[in-house]
Amino acid sequence: MAHDPLEHVMDEKGQWTFFTDAFGGVQIKLGEIFGRPITKFMIMELIAAILMIAIFVPLCRRAAKGGVPKGPWWNAFEGLLTFIRDEVARPTLGGHDDHHEHEQGNGHGHESLAAKIRPEDAYVPFLWTMFLFILFCNLLGMLPFMGSPTASVYVTGALAVVAFIMMHAAAIAKMGPVHYVKSLWPAMDVPFGMGYVIKPMIFFIEFLGTFIKGFVLAVRLFANMFAGHAVLATILGFIQMAANASVFLWGGVTVASVLGVTALSLLELFVAFLQAYVFTFLTALFMVMALYPSH
């Protein structure tokens, strides 16, 4: 029985297939939990979470004690956190309050404590967690016999639900539930009593738009990750399709497929970082739209 190359990007339930039928397939039974089958992507998500804890908890403890990261790996990991804080969270979520002012330093080129710790930094841990989890899930799909959980619409949908909840929860915590609902109500002057019709319509559209934003987050991440891995899996599938052909044809197809997959894998590596960044940036953007509706 021929092996479907797209199984690499599908979420297998209750089993985990290694290799293909052509090379002697190997399956690992994953079992069930609470009567539901354990899937491959569940394991991948757990691995991503464990990797995050193993890498960044020691890094944060060292930073809390005033330690300096040493070596290229630790500096790279800290660079990811600094990038999300300085290039996503602070520019997007900061500087919107009229009273939001910071000290400019002590005149010697050093930031004061007030300049380093800003109100918008309260949202940074959430954005860090979102970015790193998506990134690790994306990168796991680059490893042989693994898979990217973000190539499943169920996983990206769950991430979008978390972003949707945070978008509203942050605004409610800042303004209170009543004032937040009032902020969705349009403040506009409409002649001839048309406001009784137009204002509820705009309110409904604005409220519906919050659901559309979450839907867009889920679909765009799923589509980008699934499409990329599906192309890679299909190209590798050409090798199996040519397995019964002449050795020259099989050799040519194999070389072309491996070279093509290698080139596309470099692009997929870039896409893994890009999609994690875009999801996090859009989440921060939707949050600021709810936090500061007047802007």
Describe this structure in words.
- By secondary structure, the chain is mainly alpha-helical.
- The chain has one domain (5-97, 114-291).
- It is built from eight helices and four strands.
- The strands form two sheets. It has a two-stranded antiparallel ribbon. Strands 3-4 form a two-stranded antiparallel sheet.
- Helix 2 crosses helix 4 (124-140), helix 2 (72-93) packs across helix 8 and helix 7 runs antiparallel to helix 8.
- It is globular, with a radius of gyration of 24 Å.
- The model is unreliable at 21-25 and 98-114 (pLDDT under 50).
Largest beta-sheet characterization: 2 strands, antiparallel
**What is the 3D shape?**
globular
The mean pLDDT is: 76
Query: What structural category arises from helix and sheet content?
Result: mainly alpha
Count of DSSP H/I helices: 8
Classify the beta-strand content into a percent band: under 5%
**Largest beta sheet: what is the strand line-up?**
1-2
Number of strands: 4
Distance between the termini: 59 Å
> What's the gyration radius in Å?
24 Å
Give the helix proportion (percent range): 55-70%
Uncertain runs are: 21-25, 98-114
Number of domains: 1
* Secondary-structure element string: EEEEHHHHHHHH
